[in-house]
Structures are given as structure tokens and as C-alpha cells.
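We include the pair:
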Amino acid sequence: MTKLQTMFAGIALALFSQFAAAQSASSTPGVTVVPAEMAPPPGDPAYTDQSRANRTNDPYVKRRAEIREAKQQYRTEKSAAKEDYKASRKDANKELKNSMP
């Protein structure tokens, strides 16, 4: 009998949660319709300045470009330093081998 009561309680909870979800206002898609006379005109600077439409003056885009260039420069310097290190190690190994009897 205990298993049956537990099962009924689970079913009741599932049905109630489905009913509550169906009745909630947040589950319906919220579409806000603005009348045309209240909408801002296209190209209004009060709205376009807030967007990322002007990418040349956008500080975030400029910062990402600076970071990208800095990373590229770092990688080229790192690879050049790595090549120099490998060459010096190779020369050191040759000298060591030549100095051994």
C-alpha cells in the first residue's frame, strides 16, 4: 500500500507541475508589439550609437584588434627566439663532441 501511495503522490505532483507550467505567464512567448508611430525612425543616432554598428570607432573592437596584433607579434618573436635557441644548442653540442677525445 505504501508503494501505491508513493506512486499516486508522484503522479499527482507531475500532473500539478504540468498544470502550473501551462498556466504560468512566463511560459508563453513574450512578443511586444510597438506601434509604428512610437517606434524610432531608422538611423536614429540615439539607437545606432548604442549598437555595434560602427565597428571602426568601437573601443571593444579596437581592443580586440590590438590584442590580436600583440599576440601575433609575440608568436613571431617567440618562434624566432626558439629557432635561435635551437641553433645555439646545436652549436654547443657540436663543440662538445669536437672537444671530446
